[in-house]
Structures are given as C-alpha cells and as structure tokens.
Amino acid sequence: MTTTPLTTDDESRALSDALGRLATTPRLLVALDFDGTLAPEVDQPMAARPLPESKEAIRRLLEMEGTSVALVSGRDLASLDRISEMPEQVLLVGSHGIEVRIGGEVTSLTEDELARRAVISEALHTAADGREGVFVEEKPAGLALHTRLADEATTTEVREAVRQRLADEPGVHGREGKNVREYAVRPTGKDDGVARLREAVGATGVLFAGDDVTDEDALRSLGDGDLGIRVGPGETAASHRVADPAAIGRLLGELADLREHLGHA
Ligand SMILES: [Mg+2]
Predict the structure, then answer these.
(1) Euclidean distance between CA atoms 144 and 182, whole angstroms
(2) What residue ranges do the domains of the chain occupy?
(3) Which of 20, 123, 152, 265 is least crowded, fewest Cβ atoms below 10 Å from its Cβ?
(4) Neighbour-count burial for 235-247, b at 16+ CB within 10 Å, e otherwise
C-alpha cells in the first residue's frame, strides 16, 4: 500500500517557522482536540488514549513558565477526564465548549439555564412520545432529538412540533446534525471554549489543532499571533496541516524544544 504524504517539505518548513514564532509568545495556550488529534481513532470510544509522544511533550510544556495546555473535545467532561490521562494542570473543555474545568473548578449550569433546559426537555419528550423511531438524548446543557430510525413524515411532524413549541423561548440554541437536532441553553462551539480559555489564562498566542468539522469553529476564530493546525484531510480554515496524531506528537515535541531554547523553560 502506498500513501500520499499530506505535506510537502516546503509546507513542513513553513510549519516549523510558524512554531518558532509562536514559541516566543509570553503566554502560550496549547489547545488540542482529543479524538483523532491526540488519540488515534478506535472502534470503542472509551478505548481511545493519547499517544505517548504527545503526553510527554505536554508534560514538558506544563513545566514551562507562561505555558498552558487544554483539551477541547466534543466528549462530556467526565469521560474526557477519565480517558485523556492528563495531569491535573491541563484545562478541560467538554461537550463542544459547554463544560469547562479550569483550575479544578467545573462550570455548570445556572438556575435560569436549568429552567430553560426543563422547557426543552418537556418540548422534546412531548413531541417524541409514542412516535416510532424517534428518541431523545440527554446532554449536559440541553437535549437532542434523534430521527435516524423514523420515516420522513414522522420526522417532519415531530421536528415541526418542537420548532413551534420552542420558537418563542429566549436563550435556546438549535444546532442541526445528521438526523439529529440539538437544543442547548448555551451557545455551543469549540470557538466559545477557546475564547474562555484564552481569557482565563491571558494567552498572547494560541495553538489549536483538530481533525473534525466542529474544530473548524475554533480554527476560524484564531487571530494574528495564533497558529491553527488541521489534522488529516478535509476542507479547513487552518493555516497548516499535518497527517495524523503521530505528526501532532512530533509537532508538540518540536514546540517544547523551541520554547525551552528560547528561554521560557
Ligand atoms: Mg477529533
């Protein structure tokens, strides 16, 4: 089997240059997606583990002054914490930006948000009740209406019922997926997660790396002085691309080397 490299020599030189510039930033935030970025994709989601090279580079980065590391994942915070095997200093953002653990503190929903979540729950369960192939999934900050197993007429009817019920509810954020519609009480996106982390650590430069469509929200939100990396193929807003989690391991190692040599150790 032959594989086509995703990057040329010129591109990897350009990436090294960009890493060199980022390594000199006074307060560095390294924010990473987990599945497909730090951990190779596996069939059993709970069997995913970060590559040793990445864990070692993260450990080195955490020892440096003015350097923070965060995981930004679609997984819920509890499962992310369990399988990521990260030191406590690593900041965690779960559920696409909704759940945040910074300095041991977990942000959870306010009273207002809990009340709004109850309204969403009532709307979805009422519409789905007794409808074949329709089911409701509980999420940390909302609920999802799944219609993959329902016929088209049922899907349209149930979705319309929910839409009408929630149309005038303030602060309810809808998100369309494949045969699923999610309703949440907070805007959901990895861009929100990265913005909160950036503010929390006062970052002057951010490295973000991810492999999926939801990572593009974060990649698009990056500015001058940041560095966006897309892992694997696919359309992207990132300025640079690497092939796989193994390449992320090497990249993080290179960043740690550069930052050490530039006097931030
Ligand atoms: Mg991923």
Answers:
(1) 4
(2) 9-106+190-261, 111-184
(3) 152
(4) ebebebbbebbeb
DSSP-derived pairing of the beta strands 28-32 and 67-72 = parallel
pLDDT tens profile 55-109? 999 999 999 999 999 999 988 888 999 999 999 999 999 887 878 888 777 777 8
Residues with CB under 5 A from ligand 1 (ion): 33, 35-36, 211-212
Pairing of strands 205-210, 28-32: parallel
Could you report the per-residue pLDDT of 201-230, keeping only the tens digit for each? 999 999 999 999 889 999 999 999 999 999
CB 58 within 8 A of CB 97: no
HSE-up of 136 (CA within 13 Å, CB side)? 19
3-state SS string over 189-233?
CHHHHHHHHHHHHCCCEEEEEECCHHHHHHHHCCCCCCEEEEECC
Residues forming a β-bridge with 210: 230
CATH class for the domain made up of 111-184: alpha beta
Please tell me the distance between residue 155's alpha carbon and the centre of ligand 1 in angstroms. Answer: 29
**What's the gap in Å between 152 CA and the centre of ligand 1?**
30
**For the whole model, what pTM was predicted?**
0.78
